[in-house]
Amino acid sequence: MSASVSGDNKKRKLKRSYVQLIAAVLYNCNIKGFADANIYQGNIKGLCVPGLNCYSCPGAIGACPLGSLQTGLLSSRYKVPYYILGTLLLFGLFLGRFICGWICPFGFIQELIYKIPSKKIRKNKVTGSLTYLKYIILVIFVIAIPLLKLVPGFCKYICPVGTLEGGIFFTYMDPAIRKIAGVLFTWKVFLMILILLTCVFCYRMFCRFLCPLGAIYSFFNPIAFFGIKVDDKKCIHCDRCVKNCRMDVRHVCDRECIQCGDCIKHCPADAISFGKVSNRD
Predict the structure, then answer these.
(1) How far apart are CA 278 and CA 217, in angstroms?
(2) Which class would CATH give 224-276?
(3) pLDDT-derived band of residue 221, with 50, 70 and 90 as boundaries?
(4) Integer angstrom CA distances of residue 163 from 26, 65, 231
């Protein structure tokens, strides 16, 4: 019986890895862009993908929801960016942070890096407190700075995805860009390296502490249409799901849950599953 359960868990984990990989490839399937060192400008580029994926990646066929939100706030003096807000609302209401756990390319990259053998930092009160940092970043860099008509703050000063997927590639390929790359680009590369190195020791460090897109989706987690659900009739309140989760969750499908499904294997009562969620606490 235990061997069968272990086999099912491995299949589930492998299945999620395949989904993450497929999502990353679909987001960046403009292979010609890498060869030509050009950004895809086709008709679908204005559509947002659900996860964090840079618009400026040469392979990207869609827009980043965070970048689009900042651009909308920055460019519309008297108008609300209804399209991107509606898109985020749709993604959030339907899937919540399932997007983070299953179809975000940068989340997948972090998980691959975490597999590097090393001592790991277990979640604790400090990591729990640091999860609020992403909400501060959301308010200041994604909303406040663009609204003040300055710059798309998160993209310009923080986002490691843009640096990894677009900045480094185009800086390497284009001598003109290399000449104008200055202190800000150096800062972005340093921050990206620091984040990726930290992900070796700390599970999904960027998702947990810094990602404003995850912060947005976290508001929808308790009411999302699809995701992890707990059968209260079966639950024995042993808290093994919470104790074994590598995210800073307090209960299944709270704001920090990325709905990866790893908690299912730790439930002795078989009370946790995926599906349509009719009601959550």
Answers:
(1) 18
(2) alpha beta
(3) very high
(4) 20, 16, 42
